Amino acid sequence: MITLASDFPSPYPAAMRGVICSRSDARIEDIAHDFPRQNVRAAAFWLREVLPYFPPATHCVVVDPGVGTDRAAVVVEAGDHYVVAPDNGVAIPVARELADEEFSVWDIEYEDDETASNTFHGRDVFAPAAAAVHDAGGADAVDRCVQTDGWVDLTLPEPEVVASAARGEVLVVDGFGNAITNVPGSVVEGRETVRVGGESVPVRDAYAARDPGDRLVTVGSHGNVEFAVNQGRGDDAFDLGVGDDVLLEW
């Protein structure tokens, strides 16, 4: 199986699928192609949350603000999974989730490919590499892949939790408008309310535990604190965006 994930609008993912189909008989599954544009950290968060639910596969990930520059292209081997991606750290959090620190990184040597576009490495570098890694059974069996220790790291930020408060930040905003933070859900367990911006906000186990349009703090399926609105957008109601600091007090 080869999965595809990117921040590309249509029809760019179709070109990647076409390249893979022309080179491999692998089953192709789409993860998402609506990651926030050029937001490596948001993509890294969602990959960490989603890919562990898949059986062993080759994952082709393209969120690549550095396309056309001298940034490297890599294959990250994590357990029975291979993540083909730009060397900007997007694959590292999920690699740690899949294999702790027992993962390896391989450079994809593509610089001498004069046919590769400087603006669409998803089609010309990553899709061919994903097909090759899948069909060869691993990066070590692909001639253009060379193991490296010089890869770009990325770690998602850690919150600060003390006796009476937790400070963190918004990692992503999902399609429903839920502002998902890096604050662990354990800090609000058993609490009826928390203070946010000096105001008391109910803590609830479900969105529908509040009336439509009402604000709440809850714990999402990922285990982190979310700022939400029942049948509305938490990002708007709390005036939050990706990267904003959040403070919960009790």
The span between the termini is 47 Å
CATH level-two architecture of the largest domain: 3-Layer(aba) Sandwich
Q: Given the structure, what is the number of helices?
A: 5
Mean pLDDT score, rounded?
97
- What is the structural class? alpha+beta
CATH class placement of the largest domain = Alpha Beta
Which helices and strands appear, and what pairs or packs with what?
Elements: E1 2-6, H1 12-23, E2 28-32, H2 40-50, E3 58-62, E4 73-78, E5 81-86, H3 92-99, E6 103-108, H4 121-136, E7 145-148, E8 160-162, E9 165-173, E10 179-184, E11 193-196, E12 199-202, E13 215-219, E14 224-229, H5 234-237, E15 245-249
Parallel strand pairs: 1-2, 1-3, 3-5
Antiparallel strand pairs: 4-5, 4-6, 6-7, 8-9, 9-10, 9-15, 10-14, 11-12, 11-15, 13-14
Helix pairs in contact: 1-4, 2-3
